[in-house]
Amino acid sequence: METIKIDKDLMNGKGEWNEKDHPRDEKGRFTDKGNSNTIKKHNNLYVDIYGINDIMNLEAFVPAKTISQAEEYAKNKLGVQICSYKGIELDIANELNAVVQQGIILCPKIKENLNFIGSLNELNNLYEKDLIDFYFQQFHSSVPQLGNDRCLNMAKAFAERLKIKFDNKVYAISYKKINMADERVKIYNKYAGVSINEVWGKDKNIILANVKKDVEDRWHPQGCDTIKSIFDHEIGHQLDYALNLRNNKHMINLYNSISKFNKSVGLSMYSNYSIKEFIAEGWTEYINNPYPRDIAMKIGKIIKKELES
Ligand SMILES: [Zn+2]
Prior knowledge:
The protein is of the alpha/beta class. It has helices at 8-11, 52-56, 67-77, 90-106, 120-142, 147-162, 183-189, 198-201, 204-216, 227-243, 249-257, 260-266, 275-288, 294-308; strands spanning 40-42, 45-47, 82-84, 116-119, 172-175, 193-196. 52% of the residues lie in helices and 7% in strands. It has a 4-stranded mixed sheet with strand order 3-4-6-5. Helix 5 (120-142) packs antiparallel against helix 7 (183-189) and helix 13 crosses helix 14.
């Protein structure tokens, strides 16, 4: 079992993130990633992204000028079947498209689970409509004597039960396809992918202020207080789905070898939630923090190895 070096500086409060040491551009991206192909030790922090950011940026991203253009980009360029950015601010829609594009360049297999990207609320509306249609057909063909109105009311009641219930605290969600030969599962699978909660996606200033606070509170990893990092977390889940990272023995050993306390201070409090969140949080720090800490480095290395195999 691997052991994690305890970051004493961090634990005694000296190793705080110093924002002014890490300049950013106007979009909040770090600009000090110049040596991303090399590993350098610097004050016990590592400057390295193992070239992963360079790979992901191989193809330039062209931001859309309107929401409908962003939706077209997602469908035509990224190959997702359904995209709706209704109610989402353009910059946020562009950021999700950009991050998904980078994820696909890095790991084309994630496309298999990307049927939908866009607004979580719209996802739920479309999903509900499909379920109502499905149940209406079921009732109508099996008990036609009920009549259209009753069939529709019953269909709506059944669809309501299956609708996705989500906590408004969540920024974004990654749904995973389920492998089952059930018509309702097929409908659900149409919406596998990455979605952003409209409550947060409608205004980048609101979401940025919250994410910044999350990082200060150690809820999310250091260096991960941008909109990009929220979506990178979701791509971390997509990589887990594509590469089965949660069952990777090195990942399991790593997860089990670090105490809850050390995960909280050395990665993030949220990483304690499950091995799935541990992977997503580690991935996010690995590619966003120009000085990824030990745990993120180890998670990143395992993922990189899987990407290369
Ligand atoms: Zn997550």
